[in-house]
Amino acid sequence: MSGFIGDWHALTVLILAGFLPNEIWRMLGLWLGGGVDEGSEVLVWVRAVATAILAGVIAQILVYPPGALASVPEILRYGAVAAGFAVFIMTRRSIFAGVVCGEVVMLAGKWWLG
Q1: pTM, whole model, 2 decimals?
Q2: Mean pLDDT of the chain
Q3: What is the C-alpha separation between 30 and 23, in angstroms, rounded?
Q4: What is the spatial distance between Cα 9 and Cα 104, in angstroms, rounded to a whole number?
Q5: For residues 85, 91, 96 and 102, what is the CA-based torsion angle, rounded to 10 degrees?
Q6: What CA–CA distance (Å, rounded) separates 105 from 111?
Q7: How far apart are CA 73 and CA 98, in angstroms?
Q8: Residue-wise pLDDT tens digits, 37-53
């Protein structure tokens, strides 16, 4: 059994340090945010800040790609983002469809380039 799961010490640390602290905040957010109006100014601001942070992370990954992504040509990276965004818009803002399209374009392009 330990061969399948791996080192149980590492798994314990992962659960205690990674999973539980995040879950506590998520459950607290669900509990406290249950009655908040989705159109309130505070929530609109929070959504705008979260979107800006996500856009910044995506831009940083595109311009300064980490790890194996650095081996992918810039034109392919930008093309995959453009294709994903186009599918996102065409599918009535389906995040799933946009992400899948971007990944398919990236993988197919990398495979084709070798």
Answers
A1: 0.62
A2: 88
A3: 10
A4: 37
A5: -30
A6: 10
A7: 20
A8: 888 898 899 889 999 99
Contact 101, 83 (CB under 8 A): yes
Cβ neighbours around 101 below 10 Å, total: 20
Task: Give Cα 29 distance to the centre of its chain.
Answer: 20
- Give the type of residue at 85: F
Angle at 78 (CA atoms; ends 96, 72), nearest 5 degrees: 100
Q: Note whether 84 and 95 are within 8 A (CB).
A: no
Q: What are phi and psi of 49, to 5 degrees?
A: -65, -45
* 15-42 as b/e: b if 16+ CB within 10 A: eeeeeeeeeeeeeeeeeeeeeeeeeeee
* Close Cβ partners of 94 (under 8 Å, ≥ 6 residues apart): 87, 88
